[in-house]
């Protein structure tokens, strides 16, 4: 509930109503309707009308917008629900989306129900009120409107799953949107390169306008280098499953996932499954998939991303809408509540360590700037970079090939090169964090893991420092090491520094490494940079 750093683009309700009327989009002139017995489901036209009406009735907590257009030009409607909805507050964000697969219509009803729970409960239900006041919730109701409309045209079902995009060089229509995301896009399991297949992954990642719109929306929620969305559910049918990443591999904790993340993802997933009666499992336990929404969301941004497979039969009729959506109410509320600190489900120690003002395992980009002042003297190959470090050895291990969590670290001269000195620092390099808002409480600590290794030619000109840059630009060295003429092998060590002098301020962290002699070998690695909760 801190002040905004950036205003969101706003699509007014008036404009939305114009678009709804078909003036801004190539939507069909006549609305299609579901077959008899399924009229309780929302067609695209009915969905558009309903969300515009609800948004207009709750302007204080709802902002209606479009994340882009489908292949056929339909708006991909979304809402933001939060207090002070016109302001981008510093609150954990949650994303729900429905019906990437157009024959899985219950996903639309699910996202609509979540929307209604929030707006109807706000101000009357204390739990909902608290969620809306302390979170920013985004809902993308229907990712695949072209397919959904096609699936019901003519008053019957066409069992249509993909979008309605023409495939270049083929007469086949449609890409499987939940195979078209750009994280480890490719082949494996139920993922096809055949344009005729229902799991066709498209000619290239993000070839579909609908997945590009999702990609661009997710990217728009990166503020100050950090993804604001912490948790997400993508609603599919069928099977009554809660699934967590990854889908692309059977390995539980591959190199692109940390052990903490896996433990928290599984713990939260299993808890949600106890509330809705679903079966909890890693997505690949159902079958291998590539290019899915949740793999992209977690792999790219470390969003705690789930797929829910709703229902137990294909095309459940109207009578199932209330029960199939209602059984997910507790899971949805629980995930929104956990989004503030997903690691808290693993205990108080992890909550304190990982849910303070800053938490970076260095596995994804979180806003570090290399050479922020333009004064680095190290060659490009020797400067800090976020990378999977190659091990180097010279009279013992110098640059370690391991991280303290996951795979990546901040490292000077990440590559091994032809000889140990090939990617050496040879000069100075600095890396600066994005802005960090410190709560006005004492007891917060900057903690990080580091390696500082050098050979016997080292001198006091070789240094490694941590610096806090205050709001007024004042820089304070809070941690410093200097070289000695002793061969010192690489070893992961821990640092902990009180941040009390900066409580209540917005600061930047800086790490500075200097290799003072061109013949010296200096290696610096940093991992798990955190500002802890007060303890
Ligand atoms: Zn699906």
Textual characterization of the structure:
The protein is of the alpha+beta class and 535 residues long. It folds into 2 domains: 13-355, Aminopeptidase (3-Layer(aba) Sandwich); 359-531, Jelly Rolls. 22% of the residues lie in helices and 23% in strands. It has 11 helices and 22 strands. It has helices at 13-20, 44-57, 106-121, 126-134, 145-152, 209-220, 259-276, 293-301, 321-326, 329-338, 348-354, and strands spanning 62-69, 75-81, 93-98, 136-140, 222-223, 226-227, 229-237, 241-244, 279-282, 304-310, 358-360, 369-370, 384-387, 409-412, 428-432, 436-437, 445-454, 463-469, 475-482, 493-498, 506-514, 522-531. The strands form 4 sheets. An 8-stranded mixed sheet has the order 1-2-4-3-7-10-8-9, with helices on both faces. Strands 11, 13, 14, 17, 20 and 22 form a 6-stranded antiparallel sheet that branches. Strand 18 (463-469) and strand 19 form a beta hairpin. Helix 1 runs antiparallel to helix 2 and helix 7 runs antiparallel to helix 10 (329-338). It starts with 12 loop residues before the first helix and ends with a strand. Residues 1-29 have low confidence and may be disordered. Bound molecules: zinc ion. Zinc ion is lined by residues 101, 104, 178, 236.
């Amino acid at each position: 509930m801190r002040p905004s750093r950036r205003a969101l683009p706003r699509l007014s309700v008036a404009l939305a109503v114009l678009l709804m009327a078909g003036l801004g989009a190539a939507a069909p002139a006549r609305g299609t309707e579901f077959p008899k017995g399924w009229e309780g489901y929302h067609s695209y036209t009915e969905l558009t009308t309903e969300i515009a009406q609800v948004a207009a009735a709750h302007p204080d907590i709802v902002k209606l917008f479009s994340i882009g257009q489908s292949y056929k030009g339909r708006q991909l409607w979304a809402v933001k629900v939060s207090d002070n909805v016109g302001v981008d507050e510093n609150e954990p964000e949650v994303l729900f989306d429905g019906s990437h697969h157009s024959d899985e219509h219950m996903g639309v009803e699910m996202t609509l129900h979540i929307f209604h729970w929030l707006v109807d409960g706000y101000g009357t239900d204390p739990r909902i009120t608290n969620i809306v006041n302390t979170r920013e919730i985004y809902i993308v109701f229907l990712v695949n409107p072209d397919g959904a409309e096609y699936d019901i045209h003519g008053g019957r079902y066409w069992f249509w799953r993909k979008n309605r995009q023409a495939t270049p060089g083929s007469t086949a229509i449609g890409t499987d949107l939940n195979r078209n995301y750009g994280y480890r896009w490719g082949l494996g399991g139920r993922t096809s390169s055949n344009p005729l297949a229902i799991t066709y992954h498209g000619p290239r990642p993000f070839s579909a306008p609908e997945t590009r719109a999702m990609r661009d929306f997710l990217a728009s929620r990166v503020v100050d280098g950090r993804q604001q969305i912490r948790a997400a559910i993508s609603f599919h049918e069928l099977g009554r499953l809660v699934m967590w990443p990854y889908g692309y591999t059977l390995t539980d904790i591959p190199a692109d996932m940390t052990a903490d993340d896996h433990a928290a993802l599984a713990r939260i997933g299993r808890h949600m499954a106890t509330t809705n009666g679903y079966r909890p499992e890693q997505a690949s336990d159902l079958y291998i998939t590539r290019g899915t929404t949740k793999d992209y969301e977690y792999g790219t941004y470390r969003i705690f991303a789930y797929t829910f497979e709703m229902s137990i039969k294909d095309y459940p009729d109207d009578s199932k809408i209330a029960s199939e959506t209602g059984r997910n109410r507790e899971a949805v509320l629980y995930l929104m509540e956990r989004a503030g600190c997903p690691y808290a489900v693993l205990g108080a120690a992890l909550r304190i360590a990982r849910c303070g003002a800053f938490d970076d395992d260095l596995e994804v980009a979180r806003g570090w700037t290399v050479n922020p002042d333009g004064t680095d003297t190290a060659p490009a190959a020797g400067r800090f970079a976020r990378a999977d470090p190659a091990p180097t050895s010279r009279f013992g291990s110098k640059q370690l090939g391991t991280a303290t969590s996951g795979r990546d670290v901040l490292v000077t001269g990440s590559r091994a090169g032809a000889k140990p000195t090939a990617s050496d620092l040879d000069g100075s390099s600095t890396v600066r964090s994005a802005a960090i808002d410190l709560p006005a409480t004492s007891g917060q600590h900057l903690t990080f893991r580091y390696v500082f290794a050098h050979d016997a030619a080292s001198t006091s000109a070789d240094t490694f420092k941590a610096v806090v840059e205050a709001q007024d630009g004042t820089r304070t060295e809070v941690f410093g090491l200097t070289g000695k003429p002793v061969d010192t092998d690489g070893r992961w060590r821990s640092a902990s520094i009180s941040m009390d002098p900066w409580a209540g301020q917005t600061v930047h962290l800086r790490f500075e490494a200097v290799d003072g002699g061109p013949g010296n070998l200096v290696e610096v690695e940093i991992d798990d940079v955190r500002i802890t909760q007060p303890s």
